[in-house]
Please model this.
Amino acid sequence: MKRFHVAYPTTADEAAGLLQTDAVIVGGGTLTVPALTRGELNTAHVVDLGRLGLDEIVPDGTVIRLGAMVSYQQLITSALVAERLPMPHRMASGITGGIQIRHQGTVGGSACAARPNSDVPAVLVAMRAEMLLRSPAGTRRVPVDEFFLGAERADLRRGEFLTEIAVPSTPPGWTTGYYKLKFAESSWPVVTAACVLPPAGSAEVTIGGVADVPLRITLPETNRTEHTVAERISAIPTERRWSDLRADARYRARVAGEIACRAVRQALAARGDQP
Amino acid sequence: MTELPELPLTLVLNGKEVSATVDADATVVDVLREEFGVTGVRAGCRNGDCGTCTALVDGRSVKTCLQLPGRIHGADVQTLESIGTPDHPHPVQRAFLECYSFQCGFCLPGMTFAAITLLEHTPDPTDAQIRDALSGNLCRCTGYENFVRGVRRASRLMRETAG
Amino acid sequence: MSGTTQPWPKTDGFAYAGGTASFVDDLRPDGLLHMAVARSTRAHARLAKVNTAEAERVAGVVRVLDGREASTHLKPIPYAMGDPELIGARRGHPFAVAVDQVHYPGEPIAVVVAESPRAARAGAAAVSGDYRDLPDDEPEVLAENHFRAGDPEAAFASAPHELEVTFPIARSTGAPLEPRGYLASWDEDTHKLTVHASHQQPFALRATLAEVLGMPETAIRVVVPPVGGAFGIKMAGQPEEPLVCLMSLLCRRPVKWIETRAETMLGGAREQVHHVRAGFDADGQVVVFRDDITIPVGAEGATPGWRQAYVTAATLPTAYAVPNVEIRSRVLATHQPPWQSCRGYGKETAVLVMERTMDLVARHVGLDPAEVRRRNLLTTESLPHRMPSGYLVDSGDFPALLTKVLHAADYEQQRASIVSPSEDGLLHGLGIAVEVTPEGGGHASGPLNGRQPTAAVPEAATVRIEPDGRVVVLSSVTNPGGGNETSLARLAAAELGVDRGRVTVIQGDTDLCPPGTGNASSRGTAVGGAAVVLAARDLAQKLRETEGAERTEALSCTRTYRPETLRSPQETVAYRHSYPYFSSGAYVARVSVDPATGVVRVLGLTAVHDCGRVIDEVLVEGQLQGAIAMGIGLAVSESSQFGADGALRTSSFKEYLIPRANDLPSFTIEHHETPAPGTLLGAKGAGEAGVGGAMAAVANAVDDALAGQGAAVTTVPLTPPTVLDLLETRGRQP
Model:
């Protein structure tokens, strides 16, 4: 457990320069600061992005650009997000830890932490978001499908940091659903499901907490969701199945179909269909 | 011996401007307590779970164990000490006292600010809304029962005053 | 708000509401140093060497001390609650720091003192040990207990029905919001050591420190500032207590140690496996109960923690009149962190096992669980009742409690109206529990038979009136946060006929207060309050005698009080003193279970509580509410888990799941008062009761919800994977 220095860059260029060392990046701080306090993250240099801004929510044609430091509470209170990104809006409303964590936790930070069972990764995969990464070499755009490499492993190279997440708006006529299984109010999510339902064509459901990265599954028939999800999960290689203290891989596989169905039913209900 | 990482800091704390040079790798809860003698924030878990370190930073309720000290440089910080006096307690404080809401009192920074924030936006909350609003803070003494009653009472007190 | 009237129940409440109350970590004397503890990363190993050089180089570190050096200064830690032989246990010699062997992951191997808490932690992290792992060994038997009544063998031979079931119960912990913490200040000039401690037992701590440090008790003052919850873990015998004092002596500066959350979570208790066999007739009358219990209590420690194992065994068969009983328990030392005392103190697991057994009997004979309980409960005519262990159930009215709680919970109506599964697919269940809680101190038990007698421990109080009429109460009992000072003030005020606002209560200072036990075994009001009443009565008498005379000096009276050691009228043999009163309670829980995920939600909880005479209803209910919440947590989510390497995996509140406000329903609480015959005020305890009752009622309700769909509930916590496993196991076992 080392003592460490902290830099508070005020521009993206400055931040990019500072990150050329082996620095730990602090965004919202909800994961990194306790890890530093306990000595689970050991570093001599910390870069805190708190003075960088990066907390704007900006519409840009058919996408909404979320600055990497946008908090859950901003998603909740933004009328734009409520209207055009209903699934992320619903996800943010279910974040645990009270108003303080909704103020402090960031969508970008959760994405970079890439925890398989966290709310954000599966939602971003479901929404087919695009990640904007900044480094001294410039800006790199990474589709979210390629961003999550494994459990707690995101495609962030040394010196790179996330500046923005571009999330396609949910088009009129499309509906979505989000369901999270957790064991108690204190618990991390265990299995999550995020459903996107187009007016025509196949629905998709993205499952978090079952594999090391979110799984997006096409549902040719929504009344066979459980079956389709089970088939896809049975194909996950053993080493890529996710388990943690809360539940083993077997439990997750057992409940995933039902959790997916609950998200799908929400999307169907939002469309006015009898689920 | 290597040089200790330090950070000069100025902020407005409970209405007064204060300055100090602090350990850069401390957290805000440490700085408020060790440098500025604040007792109205406490370190119960240092993991963002219990809420005992809650303060208002620029009007937003935050868990100060999750912040490095630079985050409050130039900020306006309010802690539990600032919201009422024995003769003029904040309605939430008064209601908590009258309803025997708390026992050991360790959890009060989070509970009090959670109640205040709730009642600002939702003056007449349901029990379910109260329980959700308190859920960012842990209490091990009370089972929350009397906190729920306390927030209900505070809601009445505040509406009576406002009305 | 100032003046003499008290507008709210809690004396001195605004200091808390306003955030100015000083907990131990708020104390920062000049020259303060901070201590951190380096801990073993191994479960069972030779400790060849502790490497401290790197820690000594960390900026700000002042002093590092390993076990070898500590052993030249410190003696072994004495047992905090009487000799272990009293409860059939062998004597060990727990030492504060590992010297040449480690026994559990988390055992202290060195301490580091530094100028800031961060430097101390960085220093502790830089300490390493040279370990040589030792092979797995057979767990050592710390104690064996055997209690027997009637003729169990013959009863089994003739019992028409029988069931056999194993109940494994998880390890769990108290988890107060304020971790443990101590501040030791050695004054070289006066040769006095002052210790501020977030603690339940200031006098026991003083005695312990005197022995470990080799100092006279008169040279030590223990002061307990406001405590942020304790629930058992802040009792004496912890290794850090003498270590922080030693570091102050060595550094000649004040030294403070504040436990980290991960360290707090190392402690725990309650893990046990019960193998129950019960014989009963077709009417659900239980004629014989046998329980073989295995209790792994972690590494041997000096706190009262592992003694809970004895209390579990001795509390069976709880509130029931079972003529033939055999209880055997084996208490094993293992390579987990030592047990700490936890609210309920072993009684809660006895209640769980007995209440599950009653439900299984009911199921077996096809009767309602309430009816089976009615047929088996001890009646008022049979009290006082000597249990097989020698505990004496002093008072209560268990059938009345049951009737009252069923009425309060509208049990018949709920039972009739439950639709399970409901429209939303959830399974619903109702569960009942009857709880007895032996309280008031004295966990050893049994007929004397030439053995060492035990006696009730007294509490003491001084009540003083100042010339200006203000009243000061100095009490030997302490307040862990529940607010017993308010009851003490109320009692003194009533005896003296003054307003409660004129009464100041001082607790937890060994230089000011008369000696006693502090906060343990639910005796703050029943025993500590009685001492206050006696002292206040004496003072009132003195005041009457000097009425009219001008007073220029304070008048004061001191009294001690010990609860009576009761006996059953027909008894011919003498018994040891054991718990002087039993509080009791009955509970009904309503739950839903999501059959697709196994998630349990507690939808309602009703309790009727008998704590004897209620001194202060709001305080008693507050105690019960907290205990019920803890019991629900234990039933559904709380469990301390260790990895294959022995390391704790539940070191934060994100892994060790205690209930939050929106996990819990609103509770309905009613009272039923049967005065305790052995206490002055007729009061019994509050604080421990509720943990076992709520836990058992919820477990029974989950079982009820699963009825016909899965196997019987035999364990807690009932986490979703556990519940789903039960649902997958077709057919009911047993």
The helical segments of chain B are 28-34, 91-98, 108-121, 127-134, 145-162. Residues 119 and 155 of chain B are 7 Å apart (CA to CA). Chain B has a mean pLDDT of 95. The radius of gyration of chain B is 17 Å.
